[in-house]
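Predict the holo structure. Ligand: coenzyme A.
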Amino acid sequence: MQMTSKPVISATGLFTPAETITNEELVESFNRFVALHNEQHADEIAAGDLEPLAPSSVEFIEKASGIKSRHVLSKEPILNPEVMEPRLPERGNDKPSYMTEIGVKAAMQALEKAGRDPADVDAVLCAASNMERAYPAMAIEIQQALGIDGFAFDMNVACSSATFGIQTAADYVRAGNAKSVLVVSPEITSGHLNWRDRDSHFIFGDVATAVLVEDEAVAPAAHWDILGTKLKTVFSNNIRNNFGFLNRASPDGIGKKDKLFVQEGRKVFKEVVPMVATMIMEEAERLEIEPTALRRMWLHQANQGMNRLIAQRVLGHEASEDESPTVLDTYANTSSAGSIIAFNLNSDDLVAGDTGVICSFGAGYSAGTVFVRKTA
Ligand code: COA
């Protein structure tokens, strides 16, 4: 009789770009752009035909979001008030793509931590909120760069891509289709952020994470049992990006505001907090875990206020930094990578038997929970 394989998390990896942009640097550059814009359009503004742009502020950003700084792949053009985009030079087909380059670094770290030879990995999922090209899949390029014999594909569920990737990987292991699956999330969010938009210019940062999901039979002794995963999607236009292959040639296509990240931040806040808190509690009940006894919550890192409220509803009290760690102060919102960074940087101190939840939420709406327990 064939036993069902049990998926676990063997290790995680993180690549952090060297360059950072502080709120002070960001606001200084944004406000120079605002001054230039208002100067260039002084006549229209004076005639009442155009609203002047309003400046940004460091205090607002920190108070509204908790973000203090972010890592980026290409700082200089982002801060140039006449550019305000990453402008990463296009690479030829003989060079690794940017997502592969940073994804491989995170993946190598996860593989090293697990003592895993890439030749023993069966599948690679590139789970991220944007892909650098349509095809071939980024995941297949990552697979080739790592020397993995097997299969690979891309998946995009916006900020929930990594948790959806973990459940997909876990299902492959359960079904016996793979014993070792890498879920890689290279998030170059600086490329889809509108750095000229006051409401959101501070939100995102770049990073790459990797999660190695394996059959317990081949995993290292010290790993994280996956107790259960739950995914949920509910359609909403409140976080949207209309860039796509059907509008690339339209005269007002590229460069138009809606071809980058746009959101109704307040609605997102109000609608997503109860959805996610309820989802975590219902899943905990299904898994017979007392939510108030969760040792740690590694939440999606979009907004400190959202995380505070979600953690409070689940734990029944205001969460300490130890119970619900923050990385968005230094990383900002890194889309699907956020909860994985939080887990990667804040899980070594837990002891065998400790139970926690990795949780993502974002555009779609989409939300995912992965309940885990440390083994050793
Ligand atoms: N600098 C200074 N003031 C700013 C500003 C900036 N950069 N951006 C907006 N403001 C002003 C607005 O003009 C507004 O002024 P008013 O009250 O005089 O009209 C005020 O600050 C509040 O703006 P609002 O957009 O309503 O802010 P908010 O408190 O809702 O915070 C978010 C904005 C985005 C941080 C917040 O809604 C949020 O985090 N939402 C969660 C969604 C999220 O993070 N999604 C990411 C994808 S998962």
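The pocket of coenzyme A is lined by residues 56-57, 60-61, 64-65, 159, 198-199, 203, 239, 263, 265-266, 268-269, 302-303, 306, 333, 362 (CB under 6 Å). The chain has a mean pLDDT of 95.
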